[in-house]
Design brief:
- The structure is a single chain.
- Helices cover 46% and strands 15% of the residues.
- It has 9 helices and 7 strands.
- It has a 7-stranded parallel beta sheet, with helices on both faces.
- Strand 5, helix 6 and strand 6 (196-203) form a beta-alpha-beta unit.
- It is globular.
- The chain starts with 7 loop residues before the first helix and ends in a 6-residue tail after the last strand.
């Protein structure tokens, strides 16, 4: 993959559908756990070479890569705090040097602090915006030039039902996810004439570490808002992300909800 070249015309012809991801380089932020790990596995199974980004969970990222490799796929772990603009840019550069230009960018890394707005600290607010929103901009800014030069590419932001409806005690998270949907539309409009699609997938309550730490009363309160009456699995969200990348060839600037009906 390093040093590989593809003509823009051939790239555009192949991109009419990305059903076969063989040879594509996919960068997934927050890929070591939960939804991110499931996305990495799903894309690798479709043939993509996957860059598994993590911030601190090196062992988990190594495990994800090992599982993918054991199944016959290709994956490599890359450490970076994508909420830091310099680290985000360096991440894209490292992936490009090691695996080739990024064809698919999935920003999945997320962070939620639980605090009422009037009790939320500056640090909590800043972290929520940095990881959930600014990181998507930093990664896109670094990855889009090569996609534009190639005349193709796909960006998916993992947003949240909180990007459409509010919840108590998560002002930073809610604001960031609303902003992420706005960024999706802005980048889609700017990139469409270069053959690049930008979409968002918005999960609702999903069975991940973010939910595991909640007490049963809190979980019951969240589930009471879900018409389907259950949590999503990470694999269900990942399947939607993969479909947006592989099959939704005429969709850009859209938000695909996987929320059990919360955002209807």
């Amino acid at each position: 993959m390093p040093g590989s070249t593809r003509s823009a015309g051939a790239h555009e012809e192949e991109d009419e559908t990305m059903d076969d991801l063989s040879g594509r380089v996919a960068l997934v932020s927050g890929g070591s756990r939960g939804i991110g790990a499931a996305i990495c596995s799903e894309l690798a199974a479709a043939g993509a070479v996957v860059a598994v980004n993590y911030r601190s969970s090196a062992a988990a990222a190594t495990q994800v890569c090992g599982d993918i490799q054991a199944a016959g796929g290709r994956a490599q772990a890359f450490a970076a705090d994508v909420g830091d603009p310099r680290q985000a840019a360096a991440l894209v550069a490292s992936v490009t040097e090691s695996l080739g230009s990024v064809d698919i960018l999935v920003h999945n890394a997320g962070l939620q602090h639980t605090a009422m707005a009037h009790k939320m600290s500056d640090q909590q607010w800043d972290e929520a915006l940095a990881v959930n929103l600014s990181a998507a901009f930093y990664l896109s800014r670094a990855a889009l030039p090569a996609m534009r030069a190639a005349g193709s590419g796909c960006v998916v932001f993992v947003a949240s039902a909180s990007g459409s409806v509010a919840q108590v005690g998560a002002a930073g998270y809610v604001a960031a996810k609303h902003g992420l949907i706005g960024l999706t539309k802005a980048l889609a409009l700017e990139s469409a004439n270069k053959g690049i699609r930008v979409n968002a997938v918005s999960p609702g309550i999903t069975d991940t570490d973010m939910v595991a730490d909640l007490d049963e009363r809190a979980k019951a309160g969240l589930l009471a808002r879900v018409p389907l009456g259950r949590m999503a699995s990470p694999e269900e969200v990942a399947a939607t992300v993969a479909w947006v990348i592989r099959g939704a060839s005429y969709s850009t600037g859209n938000v695909f909800h996987v929320s059990g009906g919360v955002a209807m």
